[in-house]
């Protein structure tokens, strides 16, 4: 795993280095979450009821 100092150094380098100019960059420390995993936590913290959503092609295409 990469520590916070290392990811901080990477972000600084990406911000000030000519080699990184106009380039997209992404660095993580190995931890990640998905919104799917956060839903349960948010429901419990906010005391809200889960309401399912069935995604369909028409909902994606707005019509």
UniProtKB/TrEMBL annotation:
Gene3D superfamilies: NAD(P)-binding Rossmann-like Domain. This is Uncharacterized protein.
């Amino acid at each position: 795993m990469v520590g916070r100092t290392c990811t901080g150094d990477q972000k600084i380098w990406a911000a000030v280095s000519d080699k990184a100019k106009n380039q997209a960059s992404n660095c993580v420390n190995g931890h990640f979450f998905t919104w799917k995993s956060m839903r349960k936590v948010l429901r419990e913290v906010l005391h809200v009821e889960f309401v399912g959503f069935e995604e369909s092609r028409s909902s994606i295409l707005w019509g």
